[in-house]
Specification:
The protein has about 140 residues and is α/β, with parallel strands linked by helices. It is built from six helices and five strands. A five-stranded parallel sheet has the order 2-1-3-4-5, with helices on both faces. Helix 4 links the parallel strand 3 and strand 4. The longest helix has 13 residues. Keywords: Phosphoprotein. InterPro entries: Bact_response_regulator (IPR050595), CheY-like_superfamily (IPR011006), Sig_transdc_resp-reg_receiver (IPR001789). This is Response regulator.
Length: about 140
């Protein structure tokens, strides 16, 4: 898990909480988002993410994998929605079953994104949901 930066520069950037059990995926998405000008806090699973939220982290966007061991993404979305009433939540997964999408939206997901993703498409999606979209750098 990457701690939030305390610098004033980081405070001026929108914050994305990204949750995924894959180290490779976390690093890849984190780098893409940072390159796009976002402050990124990562968590390896839903339990860690919920702990961060309960400790007071208030990201501008929650981006979460759905299929994870332990506290899965649907459970995270349902519990996070209680703490982040108006924060956009984007579900990210390799599985795009309509039933899973319907359940994710019922639990509070704002949008659904299929893996693999990255680069400009990811940054465009995040910018759509984050009110204070930063000046994106070239990816």
């Amino acid at each position: 898990m990457a701690p939030a930066s305390n610098s004033s520069e980081a405070a001026d950037r929108p914050c994305v909480l990204f949750v995924d059990d894959s180290v490779t995926m976390r690093r890849s998405i984190e780098l893409t988002l940072q390159t796009g000008g976002y402050e990124v806090v990562t968590a390896s699973d839903g339990t860690v993410a919920l702990a961060l939220l309960r400790e007071g982290l208030r990201p501008d966007l929650l981006l979460t994998d759905i299929v994870m061991p332990g506290t899965d993404g649907l459970t995270l979305i349902r519990e996070a929605r209680k703490l982040l009433r108006f924060t956009p939540i984007v579900a990210l997964t390799t599985q795009g079953a309509p039933e899973m999408r319907q359940q994710g939206r019922a639990d509070g997901a704002t949008a659904w994104l299929l893996k693999p993703t990255g680069g400009r498409g990811l940054l465009e999606l995040v910018a759509r949901f984050v009110q204070r979209a930063p000046q994106a750098q070239a990816v």
